[in-house]
UniProtKB/TrEMBL annotation:
Name of this chain's protein: Helix-turn-helix domain-containing protein
Residue ranges occupied by any Resolvase HTH domain in the UniProt entry: 14-45
GO molecular function, one term: DNA strand exchange activity
Coiled-coil segments: none
UniProt superkingdom: Bacteria
Organism in which the protein naturally occurs: Lichenifustis flavocetrariae
InterPro entries reported for this sequence: Resolvase_HTH_dom, WH-like_DNA-bd_sf
Pfam family, one: HTH_7
Amino acid sequence: MERLAQTLKRDKANEKVRALHKSGTALKAIARHTGLSRQTVRRIVRGTRDDVFRSRESTFDRWTERLESEWAK
């Protein structure tokens, strides 16, 4: 659920940056207005921002099966 909220927030920020750029606002001004770095703003405008999240394996995941069997006893 939290990841979905982050994705929606990121999509909203991307839309805002694109709208400001379309209205003729300079990249530096967009960066100041949104709080994003100029490089991030540039990537959004160019369409090269990578919105893929890398998921990490939890340290708990490898023990889940064993713990569940122990708890079932």
